[in-house]
Amino acid sequence: MSLVYRFGLISQTIQEAVWGIPRIPQISITLPKKLQELKEKLFQEDISIDNGSILRAVPKKKLSHRRHRVKQYAAGRKQIQQLENLVRCPACGSVKRSHFMCMNCFDEIKTFLKGLKRANGLIKDTVIRPMENFANPRDETIIYPGKFTKPEERQLKAKEYIPKREEPIMFQKGKMLHNKKRDRLEKAGIYK
Prior knowledge:
- One of its GO terms (molecular function) is structural constituent of ribosome.
- By secondary structure, this protein is mainly α.
- It has 8 helices and 2 strands.
- The longest helix is centred in the middle third of the chain and has 18 residues, at 103-120.
- The protein is elongated, with a radius of gyration of 42 Å.
- The N and C termini lie far apart (125 Å).
């Protein structure tokens, strides 16, 4: 007999002794609370994160204005439905949509196949040469003749690349006055 069943029988006999009333025998076996919690967690359909929030699918790109309006204001059937068919991948344990391939597993397969192709010689790795530092810039133009520097680039490479500001023209009151007013002032002898 199991330990839980024995404790159930002992509790019945204690109740009969205290109250003096015989009880109907219990058929169900009482499980500890911890086992019941584990049983509930097994049959939970939602995937939860640490703080108990439900994990849902997240869009990878920003919604367009039109799509956002449809989702917000359209009738019930026309609204975009939330994806709730999220499950854990049986191979790696990451979250994925049901009936879709897990992207983590896909990446592993992809890297594995690329490794095989490299081993067979189907993919050749490009060799990156280190940058050469030339003492004379003319050597660089001879070795790399296709590269032409624009005047803006040359100006930026120069030490004084900040443009010099032109001196302002001296202020003349006559330039600011309207033609009719200037003529009147000239006749009066005030403006020269």
